[in-house]
Known about the structure:
Blueprint (H helix, E strand, L loop, with lengths): L6 E5 L3 H13 L4 E5 L2 H10 L4 E5 L7 H10 L8 E5 L4 H10 L3 E4 L4 H42 L13 E8 L7 E9 L2 E9 L3 H25 L6 H13 L8 E9 L4 E7 L5 E3 L5 E3 L19 E4 L5 E5 L1 H4 L11 H10 L5 H16 L8 E8 L2 H5 L1
Parallel strand pairs: 1-2, 1-3, 3-4, 4-5
Antiparallel strand pairs: 6-15, 7-8, 8-9, 9-10, 10-13, 11-12, 11-14, 14-15
Amino acid sequence: MTAIEAALLVVDDNEDNRYTLTRRLDREGYKNLTIATNGREALEKLKAQPFDLVLLDIMMPDMNGYEVLEQVKATPALRDIPIIMISSLDEIESVIRCIELGAEDYLNKPFNPTLLRARVGASLEKKRLRDEVRSNMERLAQELQAARALQLAMLPRQFPSCSPSHPIAVHAVMEPAKEVGGDLYDCFYAGEHTFCFLVGDVCGKGASAAMFMARARSLVRITVNLWRQWRADDLDPGALLDAVNRELCQDNDDCMFVTMFLGLIDTHSGLLSFANAGHPRPHLIASSGETGQIDAKAALPLGVRREARFPTLTLQIHPGDALFLCSDGVFEAANGDGELFSVERVGQLLRQAAAAEPLEMVRIIKDAVDAFTGGASRTDDLTALALRWRPALTTAA
């Protein structure tokens, strides 16, 4: 911002003072000068057009400089305009009061030309820097919002319909704690009778976690597709995670890692085969209403050690049974008193919602977490996935 470009507002009820100040500012190259003869006129001009700096006299009738300063700093649209207070009062109390009210600087009358030049120039430079920071922050916020939309678009929002040929009802949600997060979920049919689902949680938050999340999800999809093309045998969740882990360990200079639960359901038999890479255990909600976490001892997270192996476990589920998976952002959500939402509270809610459809089950948990945390800021991403096996539809077909 050059001197010619800077818009300055000079506020003083004394004509001689206004003339002297504007003449000296003009000599310094400041040509875009506006005059206000009292405090109320100054406020009207500030609301009508933008200014880069205000030179404000303190001792004025009707509305003095202190009152103008207070109103400017109390108005969101005006509070960032730098104000230099001008007064013949050479009292430290007046200076302190002005600074406490938010003034940028303080000048005594009569004006010292050198001091005037220095303080006006410094105030304008600080405003230029603040404007630049604000512009960069707004641009960054826009980019993060775009990144958030792109990240959420990577996760399924349209879920497979439950039908006689595809008897799995499923729903999931992911809410980043920041603009972008590191949680992930996915669900898709990996074969005519094989339903694949997963929930994961990347260490850390922000852009780096989001990039690692995208990499992990893509690797699972690619690995499943390649397995189906090159091998005739059934998909093996442990072997799939072995392959994904090796790729995630490759060029992982930042030592990122992701916990993941990967499950495959044979939609004919109800046999669930799964592998757990350091993720919280899912809840099994039996059709009878009985609820509990499945016995799934966790292996290492993905990306920690290239040689790690992920055993495949199996569990027989029954018609009408449901599974609920989530990230630790659900269990560890904290309220204003620091109390955690807890695994036990999730279990209680799932018992109460045992007959609910997956969409409703996810909504109940999410709403409960939101109500529990209240106004407390969330420190972790929240991800939840629920599914229910309904083979009875196949019989009805």
